[in-house]
Task: inverse folding
């Protein structure tokens, strides 16, 4: 029997519909390219649907460093009643929190309105490459196998799957096979804000407060009072504090290192919880990642019980939901034309070839309490150069998201959703410009790309 193989043709094909892929596909379509967005899962949005805050939308100083598609998506969530106004956590970060149920709707609506063709429940299983150019992408779903061709492909898989199969060099994790932990975000409903923040004021020693340099001189106690005055149920309990370390020692919590609480819905009194983790797991190993699921679920239930027993405000709270998938901080980093470094991040380096801003602290999680955190100079931002999105040994392929070209330390800053969406908008816009002019990525004018990004709301210049 002959193998049935369909064929489809597009200008731009985006693989992976997380934060980077969402922004990339919307941007490519809006810039006139016939665009296909492919995802192996049943919906779009990735970690945007987890309940995590969107980090790096604002710098530690409170200056917006993202625009364009990111701001439009947040505005759509706001219009639908699903946005918690940006706030400072009185530790080090400005956070933007959203209701993940509203975000599901906003992602789908914006993608459809932009004219993106969507192909869900579809796995990109192989690439066809000739002289460094991806000439076809082989995908499989219940219909069978399809060969998809395009002028430009964008790998937003998070793991750099397409880039690696196309011949791009890459690095994975850290030395000795270490990886930042995987996490399962969950939510609880019926949380009372006042007693939670009263507890913070009574025990500021348990909480991350007053770390950012631009609020130096403000004591942890004063930061706790200001957090309570703000009235937002946002608390970062530190793993090194006796509150968590004693709980971990007693078996009331897994060796989590942190317990981060963020609001997702004031109407439902609902918060998200970031506290589960399994370190040094290679998430590109499907068997290992699948085996992590029941272990993480055990940690979720253990954490929920701890919260109800030990954390004021959670006494009557109920379990409300689970992220749609395991959260992955780190797998592959593609090696590109440029490599973002820790010095670039920490110095807040600005560049003429920057295509967007990063503003999250250098943030590399480890096993247990290990957690490397360093602040960006003056609480500002840095530029992500276009070359970080261009894999070596390829001609018509871009990457965006956490598989960007960066050192491990710099990746710890750039991997967050605000920065990933910024990279996605740049990659999608660049892909459309190249596809419609039928030119290779190497001939793209960075000045023309930057001008188009500015015209469409991207933030390329900041005060800090």
Result:
């Amino acid at each position: 029997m002959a193998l049935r193989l369909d064929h489809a043709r597009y200008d731009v094909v985006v693989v992976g519909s997380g934060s980077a892929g969402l922004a990339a596909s919307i941007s490519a379509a809006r810039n006139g390219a016939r665009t296909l967005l492919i995802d192996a899962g049943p919906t779009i949005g990735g970690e945007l649907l987890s309940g995590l805050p969107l980090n790096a939308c604002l710098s530690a100083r409170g200056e917006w460093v993202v625009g364009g598609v990111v701001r439009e998506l947040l505005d759509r969530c706001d219009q639908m009643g699903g946005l918690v106004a940006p706030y400072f956590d009185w530790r080090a970060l400005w956070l933007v929190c959203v209701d993940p149920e509203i975000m599901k709707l906003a992602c789908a609506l914006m993608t459809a309105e932009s004219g993106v063709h969507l192909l869900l429940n579809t796995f990109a299983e192989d690439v066809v490459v000739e002289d460094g150019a991806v000439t076809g992408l082989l995908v499989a779903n219940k219909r069978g196998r399809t060969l998809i061709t395009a002028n430009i492909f964008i790998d937003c898989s998070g793991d750099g799957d397409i880039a690696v199969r196309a011949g791009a060099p890459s690095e994975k994790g850290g030395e000795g096979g270490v990886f930042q932990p995987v996490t399962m975000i969950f939510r609880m409903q019926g949380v009372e804000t006042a007693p939670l923040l009263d507890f913070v004021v009574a025990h500021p020693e348990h909480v991350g407060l007053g770390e950012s340099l631009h609020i130096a001189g403000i004591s942890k106690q004063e930061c706790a009072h200001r957090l309570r005055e703000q009235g937002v149920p946002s608390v970062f309990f530190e793993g090194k504090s006796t509150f968590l370390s004693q709980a971990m020692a007693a078996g009331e919590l897994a060796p989590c290192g942190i317990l981060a609480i963020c609001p997702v819905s004031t109407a439902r009194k609902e918060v998200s919880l970031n506290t589960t983790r399994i370190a040094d797991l290679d998430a590109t190993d499907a068997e290992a990642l699948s085996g992590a699921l029941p272990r993480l679920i055990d940690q979720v239930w253990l954490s929920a019980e701890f919260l109800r027993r030990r954390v004021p405000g959670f006494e009557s709270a109920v379990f409300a939901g689970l992220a749609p998938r395991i959260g992955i901080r780190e797998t592959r980093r593609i090696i590109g034309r440029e490599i973002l470094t820790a010095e670039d991040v920490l110095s807040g380096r600005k560049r003429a070839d920057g295509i967007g801003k990063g503003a999250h602290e250098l943030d590399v999680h480890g096993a247990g309490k290990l957690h490397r955190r360093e602040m960006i100079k003056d609480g500002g931002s840095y530029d992500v150069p276009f070359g970080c999105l261009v894999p070596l040994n390829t001609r018509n392929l871009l990457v965006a998201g956490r598989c960007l070209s960066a050192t491990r330390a710099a990746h710890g800053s750039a991997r967050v959703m605000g920065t990933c969406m910024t990279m996605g908008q740049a990659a999608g816009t660049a892909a459309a410009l190249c596809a419609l002019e039928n030119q290779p990525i190497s001939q793209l004018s960075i000045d023309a790309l930057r001008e188009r990004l500015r015209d469409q709301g991207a933030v390329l210049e900041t005060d800090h």
